[in-house]
Amino acid sequence: MGLTKEEIYKKIDEENVRFIRLQFTDMLGTIKNVEIPLSQLDKALDGMMMFDGSSIEGFVRIEESDMYLVPDLDTFVVFPWTSEKGKVARFICDIYNPDKTPFEGCPRYNLKRNIKKMEKLGFSAFNIGTEPEFFLFKLDEKGEPTMELNDRGGYFDLAPTDLGENCRRDIVLELEEMGFEIEASHHEVAPGQHEIDFKYSDAVKHCDDIQTFKLAVKTIARQHGLHATFMPKPLFGVNGSGMHANMSLFNESGNAFFDEKGDKQLSEIAYQFTA
Hints:
Blueprint: H1 5-15, E1 17-25, E2 31-37, H2 41-45, E3 49-52, E4 66-78, E5 87-96, H3 107-120, E6 123-139, E7 145-149, H4 165-177, E8 182-187, E9 193-198, E10 201-202, H5 203-223, E11 226-229, E12 243-251, E13 254-255, H6 268-274
Parallel strand pairs: 1-5
Antiparallel strand pairs: 1-2, 3-4, 4-5, 6-7, 6-9, 6-10, 6-11, 6-12, 8-9, 12-13
Helix pairs in contact: 4-5
């Protein structure tokens, strides 16, 4: 994509963005963020925004607490569901130490580090396409999640059996507005269980998109009076949720997993990758 600062500022002005979220992922896969007003954007884009890393699970000790958030400009997106008084946009950030070296506990950095190792081995691209599943539970009168599912639908059911259909459709619309290319959405096997599939992309972008996807699903579900969870097994006796990951690896010859003469047409690299 290659967004420039000028293009970002133009988008901010056109969309009436008032606040910026600087997001990152901790070692447990949880999205974290700090929100800043536009007055601090230049400082953020220069990679000068600091935070207390000792307060993040698994990061650093208290005497090593100062860390930097460095935004990836290509991850800039405006959240379509935010207030008419002023929208909120976000950047996904890499985490750096005070000496401006990459923090080795940053999951995003470690993925990018391994992609570079992959390229040195002669591979040109590693793509991922996921199929994330989630459950929708009803909220109580206090807005707290209950153990009551929002429907009794089954695989590929539709309304009125699938009462999550409108929520799922709104999630798709919001994701498309943020640039996602949605391939399919449907009710899954278990009651209250749903799946939305979006197009494959390179590994770093797709992992960024998964985190954005989870945030969007939870946010839109809340607007429908529902709680979305990606827990693998929230209820006993019904199917759990998973996330199929379709992966492809390429080198100068093309698909590195394919060998017409190989066992089951799989290459030696495919078997090594699987192992």
